[in-house]
Amino acid sequence: MGTGSQDATNRFKAMMDQVEEPLKTTYQNVHQGYHAETLARFLKAREWNVSKAHKMLVDCLRWRVQNDIDNILTKPIIPTDLYRAVRDSQLIGMSGYSREGLPVFAHGVGLSTFDKASVHYYVQSHIQINEYRDRIVLPTASRKYGRPITTCVKVLDMTGLKLSALNQIKLLTIISTIDDMNYPEKTNTYYIVNAPYIFSACWKVVKPLLQERTRKKVQVLSGNGRDELLKIMDAASLPHFCKREGSGSSRHSEYANENCFSLDHPFHQQLYNYIKQQSLASEPTQPIKQGSVHVDLPEPAAEGTEIAKTIESEMHKFENGNGLSGSLDGHKINDNSDYRTTHCL
């Protein structure tokens, strides 16, 4: 960290030391003891502008308090069949760790349908995975490797990506906006695998619009990416859709416990059991409540909405055989959005 960056971090820390309750308590759940790394994430998200980073982080803490995010890991999605349906249609999982100790998260972008539950259940599930990653997975990895580990690696499987994915653009924008505003700079590298032509065509248009820092994070790999990914992780940590010799469906695997998207996978079993245990511990005499957690859904930034609409228009042009035009010229994509750098493609 350079002198200027260190000075910005120190000034930011001095400002955050003045935070009072109830923001102070929820801030502890955000930083997990890694103050400098947390402040650096928010500073990066605001181009090292201390006042803007401070506003972003304080807004994040207020959102957490208003939506009781500190207790979201005490609210399981029940019954189990409903949660299984969420897992089968919102394809996210953790397959292992890189050799540097970074958790490897897999996303089945192309085959996620988001059609088995309400928007609130998918948002709740997404935030719960974020919180479990930040409060349990990353601190555990940090202790194991003896150094701060505060980011992860994501492998995005584009198998099955079709124009029908546009039906999910509103939900994906909501989720990405939540991440933009409250979980910035949590991904070290995005590895994109099994990319069909429609993705490749869109990527050619979008890539030049990304800031350099973002472009460096995104790597589009050949085929299922197996050989390249084995350079940074052991075979046991490969997502199931990268273990096969050829590309194919990422939703199913020969063995359920190898499919990191499945509720039967060890990661999801640990996550779900943890949430149920925390629920019982918080209210031991009360039955677990059914129903989704209603988190305030943010309004996406005007820039993000415009970009989403433009990409939607371009994909329709592609569908109609007109190719991809250059109408995205002049727009920049927000650096902090998983959706705008990956899912919308």
UniProtKB/TrEMBL annotation:
Residues annotated as transmembrane: none
Pfam families: CRAL_TRIO, CRAL_TRIO_N
SUPFAM superfamilies reported for this sequence: CRAL/TRIO domain (SSF52087), CRAL/TRIO N-terminal domain (SSF46938)
Record-linked InterPro entries: CRAL-TRIO_dom (IPR001251), CRAL-TRIO_dom_sf (IPR036865), CRAL/TRIO_N_dom (IPR011074), CRAL/TRIO_N_dom_sf (IPR036273)
Segments forming domain CRAL-TRIO: 79-239
Region entry Disordered, spans: 318-345
Biased composition (Basic and acidic residues): 329-345
Stored PANTHER family: CRAL-TRIO DOMAIN-CONTAINING PROTEIN, SEC14P-LIKE PHOSPHATIDYLINOSITOL TRANSFER FAMILY PROTEIN
Protein name: CRAL-TRIO domain-containing protein
